[in-house]
Amino acid sequence: MKVRIGIDVGGTFTDAALINNDTFELISTVKTPTTHEDKAGVAAGIVQVLKSIMEKNNVSPEDVAFISHGTTQATNALLEGDVVKVGIVTIGKGMEGAKSKSDTAMGEIPLTATKQLCSENEYVESDTEHFCEDAAKAIAALKEKGCKAVVAAEAFSVDRPENENTVLNLCRQEGVAATATNEISKLYGLKVRTRTAVVNASIMPKMLDAANMTEDSIKKTGIKTPLMVMRCDGGVMTVEEVRKRPILTILSGPAAGVAGALMYEKLTNGIFLEVGGTSTDISCIKDGKVMVKYAEVGGHKTFLTSLDVRTVGIGGGSMMQMENGKLADVGPRSVHIAGLGYEVYAKSEEIENPVLCLIRPVQSDPEYACVQCANGKKYALSLAGAANLAGYVPEGDYARGNLEAARKAWKPLADAMGLSVEETAREALRLSALKNAKVVKALLEDYNMDARTTMLVGGGGGASAVVPHLGEALQLKYKNAKNAPVISTIGVALAMIRDTVERTIPNPTQQDILAVRREAEERAIKSGASPETVEVSVEVDATKNMVRAIAIGTTELRSRDLTNRRLSEEEIKKKVAENMNVPSGELFTAASNGLMYTMQYKSVKKKFFGLIKKVTKPTSLVDEEGIIRLQKRDGKVYACDGKNWENTLLKVTDSMTEYNDGGRTLPNVYLIFGKRIIDLSGLLDEEQMTSLARVELAAVREDDTLMILCSARTD
Fold first, then answer.
1. For the chain, which residues score pLDDT lower than 70?
2. Helix (H, G, I), strand (E, B), or coil: what is residue 396?
3. Each residue of 513-536: pLDDT tens digit?
4. pLDDT of 561
5. What DSSP string runs through 197-248?
6. Residue 176, φ and ψ in degrees, nearest 5
7. How far apart are the C-alpha atoms of 230 and 236, rounded to whole Å?
């Protein structure tokens, strides 16, 4: 049996998950303390947990088909200010050079209240016969100033990278860690590009050591498959890419959980909440894709595209904030900071004659509730305790505790508030839901999500303390992920290879778009994706003069039916009806190619006292396994064959194009070929659509059945 191994390196523990490579079912998990103090760093813990899970399950090195790890090392380095001083070699000439000097003067980038990322600059004139000699002198000068890493920065290097690359080669000859701005981003904007490169360079020495030790340690186990590392956008990359762009591993922790939700839960449209003891990381999945944005460091924008994760100070260990003897709020302080025990995980006999008292875990904190027992022990009142008392934590759940102990501990607070224990617990849950609900509503609005088909999915050990009640409060569908406590580790094991290319191109031609698409595809393949599995989506942003291509693939061809069972059309219809919350009899199959089904129902809403009827057709695109791949509030579906798809595409696009004062707005368009979904919704005109579609449909035959799904651009 071939297996996949995912290793998640956290601040406290390093977890490993063993996954069946054929079925993607979880086989086993192992946990060990993270080895921060070991001379080999976190690599020692990775090897320990790897050895443990392989021995526990009799896995030999040749059985391992895929191995990947996620790490908080880059994030922690920035949070803790554990970075090196960076030297910037600014390249330019004339007036352009003067502006470049200004744009690349980073000075000190604040990381924490007390720590900064420091940088120094040296300027080198380009287009001189002494450029190499002058660049070498600049590097030497930066080393004398204490710089341990170097950034090469030149305006328009995304088009002309030769000078930056020369500086890189000189640094490598000197054994100095270095990065070029053109390696980090292909977008114009020297200031932001340089800032991103400086952050990347500042963590390079630390990350290079860790990457080398980890890779060497894995090789010594006899595993031949290349080690992959989790990226901040939910994909994985090779260790070689980590050496060049360690910045891409920032925020890879939250990204791992979303990857698990995507691959393990087959989530199409949803809000993923990973609940820990102190906080909840909330992110959005739309049309089966993670939503990303440009990350900020020290309050400054970078060109790093990372998961749009929003953190709320509410977790399973959140304590009850008090005011005037009453429950006033929940969190942000958690139980472990207060140095107390959880009431819900105590033995019943330990909660002896509890008396309500107040505590300030940190001097500047407001007052929080705890109970002092007759035996001298103190216990905090936690959100996990409230969720258990309110009946949201089922038997066998990771967060399940001792109800009797929790009830005894909460009674003094309930008496003070004149409520029952259960009513008090529900009030705590209500207060906690207010904070999380604000973020969930913002994500729904920001990404134009349809609440009717959006699922709240919980992950992390504290999922049951937050998600079920929040789902009820927001009237959204909800569930906790299977194996929720280790969903991040599973996500590391199942993550797909992903890479993004962004280029500044005003009025891009068909050739420009295809070139960016090809570059993204080549990057994904270079990072380890099998060429046959790579799918590329392209978006043209006219307001920013930007073309973006996202390539996603796997390390092996996974075309087989992972469930080993194709559902009948009737079974698929029942699943879709349940998701859409309509009777299955109202659903109909608008089109099918035998592997994918487009299902719709007719929705009629009356307005103005019934004088006006608005008719829409909510649409779901679902595969043969019953997994919903796309959902639209109002879709139009067309079937065609491999011979006439281009004419059909042009007619459909023209019929749904909207004209207004701002010009033309094309619809969202998706071409479905086999089980592939070719996303054309990010393009600006029909020529761009057809040229890209021709590339994607190079293998189509005249008698193949295709489907075209369209919806309004706002859907």
1. 11, 555-565, 608-611, 662
2. coil
3. 999 999 999 988 887 788 878 889
4. 39
5. HHHHHHTHHHHHHHHHHHHHHHHHTT--SPEEEE-TTSEEEEHHHHHH-GGG
6. -100, 130
7. 4
Pick from 193, 231, 194: which is nearest to 551 by CA? 231
Element (H, E) at 142: helix 131-144
* 526 secondary structure, DSSP code: H
Tens of pLDDT, residues 92-122: 998 889 999 999 999 999 887 788 999 999 9
Q: Please give the C-alpha separations between residue 60 and each of 7, 32, 228, 229, in angstroms, as whole numbers.
A: 17, 21, 19, 21
Determine the Cα–Cα distance for residues 139 and 172; give it in Å rounded to an integer. Answer: 11
Q: What is the pLDDT of residues 594-651, one digit of tens each?
A: 889 999 999 988 776 666 778 899 999 999 888 899 999 999 999 999 999 999 999 9
| Residue 465: both structure tokens together | 């303390």
- Closest CA relative to residue 452, chosen from 570, 582, 292, 540: 582
pLDDT for the residue numbered 610: 65
Adjacent-strand bridge partners of 213? none
Helix (H, G, I), strand (E, B) or coil at 291: coil
173, 179, 183, 186: CA torsion to nearest 10? -140
Chain centroid to Cα 299, Å, comes to 20
Contact indicator for 671, 593 with CB cutoff of 8 Å: no
- Summary mean pLDDT of the chain: 90
Three-state DSSP at 275 gives strand
Based on DSSP, count helices (H) and strands (E) in the chain, helices before strands.
20, 40
Sequence-distant (≥ 6) Cβ neighbours of residue 540 within 8 angstroms: 508, 513, 546, 547, 548, 682, 683, 684, 688
> What backbone phi and psi angles, to 5 degrees, belong to 602?
-95, 120
